[in-house]
C-alpha cells in the first residue's frame, strides 16, 4: 500500500508549528513513510513549559461547565471523523482496522467520562469538634489543580492512552504537555486537533513530537512541571523516577499477566478469552495474557482447543476487515521477541504453534514446558507469545502467578465462588478479572498495578485524584453569647 507522504505540524501551546528537522512516521507493515512530523528541540520544550505556566492559570480559571463543554465537543469531533482516526491508528501502529476502530470508540468514551467526572470534583466537610481544640470551628476540604502535567505516552494505544491523560487533566483544570511516542505521533496530533476545534483556550494543551533524549528529560526534570504521567517500559519508568525530583508520578510500567483456569471452568469461554487476550494488537498490550495456568485434569482439552483457535488467526494487511493480527511496531521488536522465544527453546521449551518471523510480523506462538529461568517467563514479552503451564492445586497456581516482579492484572476462570475469592485475596495484582482474561478493562475503572507494574492509578476519576491536590479550609467561629 502506498500513501502520499504528508508533513504534519506539531501543537505548541495552541499553535500549529513546523520545524526543519523532521521525524519520519512509517507503517510497520511495509516500512513505507506515511507522514513526517517536526523533531522538537530543547528550546521548543522550554518555550512550551513557559507557555504552559500561563496555560495552567487559564485552565484553573476555566469554569467547570466550560471544561465539560470543550471535552464533549472534542469527543463529538472524534465521533464525526472516526474513520480518519481509525485509519491513522492502524497505519502508524500495529493494530488492525477492527482493533483501531475499537480504540477510537474507547477514546470517545474516555472523553465523555472525563466531561462527566468534571462535575464530581468536590470535597467533604470535616467535623473539627471531634477534639476539644476543634470546638467552634467548621470547615471542609476541596481539590485544586496541580498546575502543569507532563504526559509521556507509548505506541500501543496511540489515541486512547493519550486521552486518558489529556481528558482528566483538562477536566481538573490543569495544563498538559504531551510527548507521544516517536513511532506513533499522528493520533496524538489528531486528538490535539479535536480539542483545538472544540475551543480549548491556547496554552492549556501541547503535543510536542520529538526524541526523548532531546525533550523528554527537560519535561521530566523541569521544576515547573508538577506531575509526570508515564505509560511505558520498566527501565524508562525507573529513569523517570530517578530524574523527576519532587513532583507527583503516575507510572504504568507493564506486566507479565497470569490467568488461572480451574477444572470447573467453561473451557470454550476460557480459550476464546485468553487467545484474544494474548494476541490483541500483536500481543503489544500491557494487559496481554502471557502465562496461563491450567488444571491438569483439563489441560489436554484446553491445550488442543487453544492451539486450534490460535491457528485460525488471520495474519496480514492491517487495513483488511478480515485480518485478526498485524505486525509488531518495528522489525527490531519482532527480532527481540524471536530471540526470547529462541532462548526458551534452547532451554527446553516446546512450540505448539507459531514461532516464525517475517520482517515485523511474528506468528501467534504458544509454548509449553518453559523453564522458570527463561527471560520470557520472568519479563514482559510485549509480543504475540503465550506460555501454558499445568497445575494441580489452586494454591500452587497462585504462587506461580505471583512469582514475577510485576502485578498489573490477572484473570481466573471458575464457577466456584470460594476459589474465586481465594484468588482475589492472594493474587498480588492491581486488578483481577473473574471469568475474563487479564486483558479486560473499562475506561472508568481504576487501572494500575503493584510491584514493578507501577505507581498510582489511571481511569478518569482516579487520574483526576492524582492530578489534583487537597486544600483544607477551617473557620474559627467566635460566637457571641
UniProtKB/TrEMBL annotation:
- Identify which top EC class this enzyme belongs to: oxidoreductase
Write down the InterPro entries for this protein, in alphabetical order.
Ald_DH/histidinol_DH, Ald_DH_C, Ald_DH_N, Aldehyde_DH_dom, ALDH-related_metabolic_enz
Q: Which domain of life is it from?
A: Bacteria
Single GO MF descriptor: lactaldehyde dehydrogenase (NAD+) activity
- A Pfam family it matches: Aldedh
Q: What is its EC number?
A: 1.2.1.97
Q: State if Cytoplasm is listed as a keyword.
A: no
Q: Which chemical reaction does it catalyze?
A: (2S)-3-sulfolactaldehyde + NAD(+) + H2O = (2S)-3-sulfolactate + NADH + 2 H(+)
Recite the UniProt keywords alphabetically: Oxidoreductase
Q: Which family does it belong to?
A: Belongs to the aldehyde dehydrogenase family.
Q: What does this protein do?
A: Part of the sulfo-TAL (or sulfo-SFT) pathway, a D-sulfoquinovose degradation pathway that produces sulfolactate (SL). Catalyzes the oxidation of 3-sulfolactaldehyde (SLA) to sulfolactate (SL).
UniProt protein name: 3-sulfolactaldehyde dehydrogenase
Q: Which organism is it from?
A: Heyndrickxia ginsengihumi
Q: What is the lineage of its organism?
A: Bacteria, Bacillati, Bacillota, Bacilli, Bacillales
